[in-house]
Amino acid sequence: MGHIKVTQSGPAAVLSIDRPEALNALSRALVDELDEMLEQLAASNEIKALILYGPRNFAAGADIRDMAGCTPEQASTFSFTPTFNRLGEFPVPTIAAMEGYALGGGLELALACDLRIAGESCKMGFPEITLGIMPGGGGTARAPRLVGTAKAMELIFTGSVISAPEALRIGLVNQTVPDGEVLPQAQKLAGRISAFSRTALETAKQTILEGARHPSVLSAAAVEYRNWPSLFATQDQKEGMRAFLEKRKPVFTDR
Ligand code: COA
To answer: Which segments of the chain have a pLDDT < 70?
Structure first.
């Protein structure tokens, strides 16, 4: 235990990976810890945004020492997919704050977040093919949805490591910032998001996630059509619209 640190700055929590001696490689024990913390944070109503951060290096992948001797059955137990899915379904917005290496399972961890901010010298890729395997933490599912099938196949088939500007160009990250500014910028973004209504944020996220599971735009829009009216039962909707009409800033209370 002890490889994940939780800190709270205002309404945003920061989960920091702390295993510098292995460039924050993700061991099974580390991911178990992460899983437990995600479960606890998801159950509390205290935070409105979650930042995943790896100081110096986001994460240099799944721990190769841990999985080198796995049988297929053990590999199935080792897989981080259940935890990364839990992160993907986290009720409020999540942001990956990426420095240094974000490779393999580290990149998959970032892809399970809603938004990604990368430092200018961040390096990203899927080196699994160079180890005789393929991504196993949701990479084959999430990367094509973000950057398109052909680009995801290129990354996964070649194991190429790409720069932050290239990742921005193909849509793998939302923004790049100067090195050293990654966490402050992620906190700034989390603070901006957290000023809004929690119910509106949660409903928007769940609607987008559920809509993405629908093959047709019409059935995805039907999910929105079903969820949108529920927001008119909140005090935040009344406050937001009243504030607009009264030409003042709204004060949302998450009710
Ligand atoms: N699993 C286990 N240990 C890892 C690791 C991983 N994914 N990535 C880095 N480490 C360890 C190294 O074994 C080394 O430990 P040691 O000092 O006990 O030998 C330490 O972290 C530092 O790594 P090192 O390779 O010496 O640093 P570097 O700066 O020369 O290279 C990388 C950095 C990221 C290019 C290189 O570590 C690497 O290729 N890592 C594996 C990336 C990968 O394939 N990830 C996907 C796994 S599915």
So the answer is: 1
